Amino acid sequence: MPDTHRLDSLQKSSHENYPNLTQLLRCAYRGLGADFEELVAEPEQGSEPQGQSSEKPKQASEKPKKPTHKRTGSYSQTKLLQQLGLDDTYRAVCVVLIDGMGLEQILACRAHTPFLRKQETGLIAGHTVLPSTTATALTSFTTGEFPGKTNMLGWSIYTEDGIGNLINFQNIRQAPKQWQPVPPLFAVAKEKFDIDSQVISHPRFANSGLTEAAFRGARFVGAETFADRIAAGIAHLQKGRGLAYLYWSELDHVGHERGWQSLEWANELEHVDANLRDLAAACPKDAAIILTADHGMIDVDPSQRIDLADYPTLSDSVKVIAGEGRCVQLYTQPGQAEKVVQNWKEFFGDKVLISTDPATVFRGRPTQRFTADALVFSLDRQVIVDSRIQPIGQVNLIGVHGSVTAPEVTIPMWRLA
Question: What is the DSSP letter of 50?
């Protein structure tokens, strides 16, 4: 079966059998009485249009299209609401997202999570989007849309200005609001339902490109330590109204540097577990806590770290690579795409899935500024890097993510209180 068809089959199976990260925030708002199913998502004014620019404007007499998140064969939103035990009677909801805390990692490290271990009866196995990486997943989480709509297509992307970063938007000519045109649900909740939202995160993220792309419409609350963020979450649950999103990234950072199977990662997971216990203990009956993650992780096998600098045949006719080490965006010299893709298929064999159809991967046609000729998903414990253009720290990461494997895409969805 061609790789694109295999990827499409994997995606369809995922959406039919698992709740997706794109559904979760709408469920949280449903607990506050907001029903996004009745709204039609439209790009904000001044944002980049999707698809071809020749598309005719909708006539006033035309009926509005159904919301894009109502997908035939997708996991039932109603079922997810029932699994979470949410109705529309809550005063406050806090959604906690722990970066890099994949479902398979949690289950493998149960001995380090005495609090979460006691909550396992309520654990729901969910899936994130592709590529399974933070900038992409967080924006899909906050907008309820797949990357083909948000244009958040990976950690980095090659543009006319060079390799651009979708965390800080360096070398991205467009403003974050233009590059990512879908209004986050925070803004929609305020406009349509008068529900206030806040983002509790590190102060250094307050004005980042990713914050503007994914979190506009919410009030930013800066707090450095996890304990300080938990205190802000408790204050919201006990005295506030609306939704709070609480983010912690240290588990992911430790995983990148030490690997998720390291003692340091287990220690950080214990720290996360203890703080979540304190948050749940302080939650009143008219409030709710939902826990999730943006992706999981695998630890690289050093023998499977493929550096293009060491393989001239792989670099032949390749202009540049971007994206993730586990989901490489492959940009080729003009007229050389077919040759390069065939060369890579012959070299890597069954250790990769290669797609030349970004709409299949991203579940929609992304911005025309995305010009990669192929997306290369590594399997097993392989990673593809290029030490000639990438910083040494990125090249030598131990824990990585971005691909289609279960340890990377399977995430927890949990009602903690």
Answer: P
φ, ψ for residue 241, nearest 5 deg: -135, 155
Contact predicate 286/279, CB 8 Å: no
Non-local CB neighbours of 349 within 8 Å, separated by 6+ positions: none
CATH superfamily of 20-37+74-148+175-297+405-415: Alkaline Phosphatase, subunit A (3.40.720.10)
Q: pLDDT band at residue 44, thresholds of 50, 70 and 90?
A: low
Q: Average pLDDT in the 210-222 region? A: 98
DSSP H/E element including 362: helix 358-362
Residue owning tokens 């994206």? 323
How far apart, in whole angstroms, are the C-alpha atoms of residue 76 and residue 17?
A: 9
Confidence of residue 160 (pLDDT cuts 50, 70, 90): confident
Residues, the chain:
417
What separation in angstroms does the CA of 212 have from each of 4, 97, 220, 323? 32, 18, 11, 20
Amino acid at 15: H
Distances (CA, A) of 198 to 1, 174, 271, 358, 415: 46, 26, 24, 33, 19
Percent of the chain with pLDDT over 90: 84
Q: What is the DSSP string of 149-203?
A: HH---SSEEEETTEEEETTT-TT--S-HHHHS-SPPHHHHHHHHH---EEEEE-G
Backbone torsions φ then ψ of 62, nearest 5 degrees: -75, 145
Q: What is the pTM of this model?
A: 0.91
Token duo for residue 152: 């958040």
Q: What is the pLDDT of residues 278-331, one digit of tens each?
A: 999 999 999 999 999 999 999 999 999 999 999 999 999 999 999 999 999 999
Q: Tell me what pLDDT residue 64 has.
A: 39
Q: How far is CA 356 from the centre of its chain?
A: 21
Buried (b) or exposed (e) across 58-75, using 16+ Cβ within 10 A?
eeeeeeeeebbbebeebb
In Å, what is the CA distance from 182 to each residue of 66, 139, 151? Answer: 16, 9, 9
Which pLDDT score, from 0 to 100, does residue 362 have?
A: 95
